[in-house]
Amino acid sequence: MKQWIVFIAGFMSFLAIVLTILILILGNKPFSDVEKGAIAQVENENLLTEINRAYVYSSDQKSVTVIGTDSEGKLKAVFVPMSGQELSETALDDKITAQEARGIALKDMQVKEVLNTKLGMEKDTAVWEVVFLTENDKLNYVYITAADGSIWKRILNL
User: Fold this and answer.
1) What pTM was estimated for this model as a whole?
2) What is the span of the domain harbouring residue 123?
3) Any idea where the Cell wall elongation regulator TseB-like domain is (predicted)?
């Protein structure tokens, strides 16, 4: 009888692990497909020669941010809207970095964990979205303009 209990417990554990992995893979697939399509579009239009990273940025208008270098070796970000609108791009050499944006956003905050920092387009302005948890486990969003490092918007203590 003990062998059956051990077998059933082992099988259920294995099944739970397999289902978790399957859900994670299938849940991330739409994002991966959109990112791959945006990268292909940027490459087809020869906007970037080397791509460092790409990710989905959600705001009023969802887009994919593709960051890389152009043919002149300058760091750029290309914003590919999901709704089929025109691409927009910005040079990042003269903009603040993700680390600088994090420093501005987290100044005078009691931060437990930084969840992510993403560059996106908000009302024709490139902004860094810094998402973090405070010591009391409240979710916070701080948006920093990439051009000058000013705070564009704060959504605190969710």
Assistant:
1) 0.80
2) 98-155
3) 38-81
